[in-house]
Design goal:
The protein is α/β, with parallel strands linked by helices. The protein has 3 domains: 223 residues, 3-Layer(aba) Sandwich (L-fuculose-1-phosphate Aldolase); 182 residues, L-fuculose-1-phosphate Aldolase, CATH 3.40.225; 221 residues, NAD(P)-binding Rossmann-like Domain (Rossmann fold, 3-Layer(aba) Sandwich). It is built from 25 helices and 22 strands. The strands form 5 sheets. A 7-stranded mixed β-sheet has the order 3-2-1-4-7-6-5, sandwiched between helices. The protein has a 7-stranded parallel β-sheet with strand order 16-15-14-17-18-19-22, sandwiched between helices. A hairpin with a 3-residue loop joins strand 12 and strand 13. It is globular, with a radius of gyration of 29 Å.
């Protein structure tokens, strides 16, 4: 385990946060980030940390406080505002109680926050309050969990870590665990750390560095112990190459994604899609391809913290029929049905333990394991799928380490159920804001221009994962960088030349490898040409035909093939133009080739309806820019229009605003909202055109 502590970096955090938040919290924040940077210690919001300090109130009085990581925050990206500050003296008084329900515990914590703006404290805040040390770090190290999840785990922990480390049997996180930890420490006051069986490690110290170095030392000891005891190798049944697994993934991932889509009961959107992330590394392939792969995989998770992301068990597909797609689909479909029945039975067996107000989760698996391919991990959105992916990778590799030295033993069904259906855990899954398109994947062509970038932003703000596609160049690179920094994990910058069927095919393949499939396609790429008919260069016309017409055809055709294979329906929204209905003189090549693309979209609405795919068009008038991104079309057309009308750039925009009935400036966001109208299926509509032009009677579809 690498020791990442750096005194210069620690000093930077003190300089940055010390005056506003205190030196203690500055160091606490630095320590959290270096722990969070090591994914073999904590994963995606897992783990916890705290510091005890003193704060000065508005009247100058001193209060002993504990700053504890808020629920759901990620240690890798902690800021001081990610901590909940609580009245430490009051929390420590709660130790006299013998029991405290989750609801009562949350009430006591929320009513003793020192700042009403603080986020909700962690479920384990009382553990941190009851243990007297100043700095406390709670982690879920792979190496520690590999030892605690064994039949003789206690003995292994004692042998591996040595003196000064307490070991507790599994206790449900919350008040009972806080009480058990405090009582154990009271009987062994010289201890420097504690291991919780099937849960993780808690270390402490009077300084940030001491707490951190205890964590690093103990995890390093566990890693060395496992390396020394790992004497059994996996027996390989097959050896799938990475290239073979990836080739299979292109076909299998959309199939699995379609079969994991949940029924919504909404006739306009009958299936709720998921994002599917694949794990096809050499290490994971070797595990699922081994004779022990099934046994290793079909066991409870390493820690209860992972339950809400992966469920208690994955779905295992025996002997996948990769050479027969129809048989493979039926095989996976049957396995999903059987898994769902088994999950429903599990919930039924534990109904008396189901807390009031908590609904049963859908019975579909979150992780599908397939020899010859690896793991497919599903989530309600791209972030959830990524969390499931990382947890699955760490879980399988850690269980393989257990198999190399002993017998795996996980949590009991009752304990699993209690954590999976705990209200405090379910709160982490709730979304805030606009997530109408969570779980959806969109492909936008011509994304680097004004309209395309506006559409991408709108879709991302609605929770969609978006493949931003265009020709390579600075505008494309800057857009991908900008959106990627704002919408982490939900932006894929993919080069696509719509005039090349191979390029279109490859772009869709990359989207599938990243997110498992496609739900929305927005053909937007286009080019313009100013020329009268009599002076038009036929070669220039053919160039526009390649981009505007054939490019649209290539994207429509590839989208149709992918939608059919996935089997969940979908949406296509073609960015057309008012010139289809009201062409302009000197603009024949653009008007004609866009009209042909428009007609192709109408044909697609006829041909794709049986697939559950809706095809509609939006028809905008002049959009000159979006933020700092100019329109490529108007870079081509604008100079000629300005010259013909004796206007400058501002005057030309005003001319187009004033000519429509509403005197409205048409923006990229307006076009994007029209796309959203169709993408969110507000009405049962296909084959329709929605004008976005402020009202141009001559351009009304007819």
């Amino acid at each position: 385990m690498i020791d990442r502590w750096n005194e210069a970096k620690a000093a930077e955090y003190i300089s940055r946060y010390g005056s506003a938040w205190s030196e203690d919290l500055a160091l606490r924040t630095y320590l959290a980030t270096i722990i969070g940077a090591e994914d073999s210690l904590v994963l995606h919001g897992g783990g916890n940390c705290s510091v005890k300090t003193t704060v000065t109130g508005i009247l100058g009085h001193k209060t002993r406080a504990i700053f504890v990581k808020a629920s759901g925050c990620s240690m890798a990206s902690m800021e001081p505002s990610c901590y909940s500050a609580l009245d430490l003296d009051y929390l420590q008084k709660l130790r006299v109680l013998t029991d405290l329900s989750d609801e009562a515990m949350v009430n006591e914590m929320m009513t003793h926050l020192l700042d009403h703006r603080s986020p909700a404290p962690s479920i384990e805040a009382l553990v941190h309050a009851f243990i007297p040390a100043k700095f406390i770090d709670h982690t879920h190290p792979d190496a520690i969990l590999a030892l605690t999840n064994q039949a003789n785990g206690k003995e292994l922990i004692a042998e591996a870590l040595g003196d000064g480390v307490l070991v507790l049997d599994y206790v449900k996180p919350g008040f009972k665990l806080a009480l058990a930890a405090a009582n154990a420490l009271q009987g062994a006051p010289g201890s420097r750390a504690m291991v919780w069986m099937q849960h993780g490690l808690i270390s402490w110290g009077e300084s940030a560095r001491q707490s951190y170095e205890t964590t690093i030392d103990l995890v390093t000891r566990a890693e060395a112990f496992i390396a020394d005891r790992a004497t059994r190798s996996l027996h390989s049944v097959r050896r799938t190459s990475l290239e073979e697994a990836e080739a299979r993934l292109e076909s299998v991932a959309p199939m699995v994604r379609g079969l994991l889509a949940r029924r919504t009961g909404n006739p306009d959107r009958p299936l709720g899609p998921v994002i599917v992330k694949a794990v096809t590394t050499r290490e994971i392939l070797d595990i699922v391809d081994s004779a022990q792969g099934r046994e290793i995989s079909l066991s409870p998770p390493l820690t209860s913290d992972h339950l809400i992301r992966t469920k208690a068990l994955p779905l295992w597909i025996d002997e996948p029929a990769y050479e027969d797609p129809a048989a493979l689909r039926e095989q996976i479909s049957r396995a999903v049905r059987e898994y769902s029945l088994s999950y429903d039975s599990y919930v039924d067996r534990n109904l008396t333990r189901l807390p009031a107000g908590i609904q049963r989760m859908d019975p579909l698996p979150r992780v599908v394991l397939m020899p010859g391919l690896g793991a497919l991990c599903a989530g309600s959105d791209a972030v959830a799928a990524t969390i499931a992916e990382d947890i699955t990778r760490h879980t399988l590799t850690t269980k393989a380490k257990v198999a190399s030295m002993g017998e795996y033993r996980g949590m009991s069904e009752a304990d699993l159920f209690d954590m999976e259906y705990r209200s405090l855990q379910h709160a982490k899954l709730r979304h805030n804001g606009d997530h109408r398109l969570s779980g959806h994947v969109a492909v936008v062509t011509g994304a680097a221009g004004a309209i395309g970038s506006g559409i991408c932003e709108e879709l991302l703000e609605s929770g969609c994962a978006v493949a931003v596609t265009d020709l390579p160049g600075d505008p494309f690179d800057k857009l991908v960088e900008d959106l990627g920094s704002r919408f982490t994990g939900r932006v894929a910058g993919i080069v696509m030349d719509v005039t090349s069927p191979a390029s279109v095919r490859e772009a869709f393949r990359q989207v599938i490898l990243r997110w498992g499939g496609v739900d929305l396609v927005v053909p937007n790429a286009g080019a313009a040409l100013v020329s009268s008919l009599v002076s038009m260069d036929p070669q220039s016309f053919r160039r526009l035909e390649l981009i505007n017409t054939e490019g649209t055809l290539h994207v429509l055709a590839e989208a149709g093939r992918r939608f059919k294979h996935q089997g969940t329906g979908g949406d296509i929204v073609v960015v057309s133009t008012k010139n289809v209905f009201s062409p302009g003189a000197g603009f024949g090549a653009y008007s004609a080739t866009k009209a042909a693309a428009h007609q192709l979209a109408r044909i697609a609405s006829l041909e794709f309806a049986e697939l559950g795919v809706r095809v509609n068009m939006v028809s905008p008038d002049a959009v000159f820019s979006h933020k700092d991104r100019p329109s490529g079309l108007w870079a081509e057309v604008g100079p000629d229009r300005m010259k013909a009308r004796g206007l400058d750039a501002a005057g030309l925009e005003e001319y187009y605003r004033s000519r429509n009935l509403l005197k409205a400036r048409v923006t990229a966001r307006h076009v994007a909202r029209a796309v959203m109208f169709f993408a969110t299926r507000q009405t049962p509509t296909t084959g329709a055109t929605l004008p976005v032009d402020g009202g141009l009677p001559d351009a009304t579809p007819r």
